[in-house]
Design goal:
single chain, alpha/beta, 9 strands
């Protein structure tokens, strides 16, 4: 073992341990530290035994064990715990040392931490690590950003431990300054929420409308995973549906109340702040909130009744409709996510490479799929592409799928089966392709009750007008126009 470690890692939960083991397996020497020193002892004596991993019992010992410039990665709970550890580390570090936050931090916190640490001569990296515990051990998608000079210091380690795509390219590259990384990871997680909700709604329609068993669904999802929907989430869904406990499908014994860690909610809030219609992901977040109201839903189910569920069509044909609807809605989910990335890049002056982001997500992460190579191709062909739906491949796929998508949406709505993500995605698609929306009436309403003014289609853009609609409002208009 080297006299000094290449990197230190704070936090010995599952992700932290697995990242350390991953680093050690690639030839790096790592120092492990945890606030509960018993965990350090157990790890060093257990999974880390015989590997290039040493333990530290204090912050001072951790820092002293590292070669300069020091690199210390925090895998602790987001928020105040990260700030607490940063404050503990600062007095022991030298200019040019790097603190890395590997958790799901809010991007605004990363912006703040970058500026704060740089003011003290230190460097900060916020990096997403996607892929769960298996990815952390065998190769995650890593999305770093922060203080630009830090990239050359962490690049050899991060790219060595990252997942790789078919041509050997690591799923890790520098995303940009201050909070760029955590924003990209936040959007990744938002898309993950959308993907999972779309799959769950497809499962629910199969279960309620087609009365399919989990075993039958397993066959369908496994088949889908060999085509355009090939992805990690489809793959694990097939596995889950096949898993039995005491001869019965385990999935049917799991309480239907979903949890979350907040990144989906952050994505929706960021979209509202930047004015981006993130309809599908917002519905996915709301669906988790509603699922948590289990007792109230059970009570409502006894008092409120919907239509009788009935299916008279061709079962196999409808399963194909479901596949097409899932693909089309998935396209919308990614399109909306990339709209949010583009607007954030404008707002925060980040230089994001959208095709490269898709490449980072192709291996190791939860939303990895064959689908992402098409996104990279779309942005390689047109780096200024305003919306993924407008690229030839995705435009053609949605056009081919929309009849199936509409049949699925109609069947779900007609039979009272909740499919908020699938149907909201269709609503977004129909609104986006509309040359004229009813916002003209909305602007008239705003002008009527608040004198907010409006523009006209028979006048140049930028000219605003106010009408005294009732004859009682006068001619005074709002001092600002906000369409």
């Amino acid at each position: 073992m080297k006299a000094l470690s290449d990197i230190g890692l704070v936090g010995l939960a599952v992700m932290g341990e697995n990242l350390i083991l991953n680093m050690a397996s690639k030839g790096f020497t790592v120092t492990a530290y945890n606030r509960s020193t018993e965990k350090v002892d157990a790890f060093i004596a257990g999974r880390a035994a015989g590997k290039n991993i040493r333990g530290a019992k204090s912050i001072e010992a951790l820092v002293a064990s590292l070669e300069s410039p020091r690199k210390i990665m925090l895998m602790v709970k987001a928020g105040e715990p990260v700030d607490d550890f940063i404050e503990q580390l600062i007095p022991h570090l030298d200019p040019g040392d790097v603190i890395i936050d590997g958790g799901n931090a809010h991007f605004a916190d990363s912006i703040r931490r970058t500026r704060y640490l740089e003011s003290k001569g230190l460097l900060f990296v916020g990096t997403g690590v996607s892929g769960g515990e298996e990815g952390a051990l065998t190769g995650p998608s890593i999305m770093p950003g922060g203080s630009a000079p830090a990239w050359q210091l962490v690049q050899p380690i991060f790219q060595a431990i990252a997942a790789r795509v078919e041509d050997g390219t690591p799923c890790c590259d520098w995303l940009g300054n201050d909070g760029a990384r955590h924003f990209v990871k936040m959007v990744h997680n938002g898309i993950e929420y959308g993907d999972m909700q779309l799959i769950c709604e497809t499962y629910q329609i199969m279960k309620q409308l087609l009365e399919m068993t989990p075993a039958e669904m397993h066959v369908v999802f496994a088949e889908w995973n060999r085509g355009e929907l090939d992805s990690y989430l489809i793959e694990i869904t097939a596995d889950i549906l096949a898993y039995e406990e005491d001869g019965e499908p385990l999935v049917e014994k799991i309480l239907d109340s979903a949890g979350q860690k907040g990144t989906g909610k952050w994505t929706g809030i960021a979209a509202f702040e930047l004015g981006i219609p993130l309809t599908l992901i917002n519905e996915a977040v709301a669906a988790r909130f509603l699922s948590a109201q289990k007792d109230e839903r059970v009570q409502a189910s006894q008092l409120i009744h919907g239509p009788d569920i009935r299916f008279d069509g061709n079962r196999q044909a409808f399963i194909e409709d479901l596949r097409q609807a899932l693909l089309a809605a998935k396209i919308v989910s990614y399109a909306q996510g990339y709209l949010l990335l583009r607007e954030a890049a404008r707002e925060y002056h980040w230089q994001l490479d959208y095709g490269n982001i898709a490449l980072l997500w192709r291996g190791g992460c939860i939303i990895r799929s064959i689908f992402l190579s098409r996104i990279k191709e779309a942005f390689d062909a047109d780096p200024e592409l305003p919306n993924l739906i407008l690229s030839p491949y995705f435009r053609d796929r949605i056009d081919a799928a929309q009849s199936s998508w509409r049949r699925v949406a109609a069947a779900a709505l007609g039979n009272g089966i909740a499919a908020p993500a699938l149907t909201s995605a269709l609503g977004y698609f129909d609104a986006y392709r509309s040359a004229r929306l009813p916002a003209n009436l909305l602007q008239a309403q705003r002008d009527y009750f608040g004198a907010h003014t409006y523009e006209r289609i028979d006048r140049p853009r930028g000219e605003v007008f106010h009408t005294n609609w009732s004859g009682r409002g006068g001619d005074t208009a709002s001092s600002t126009y906000n369409a």
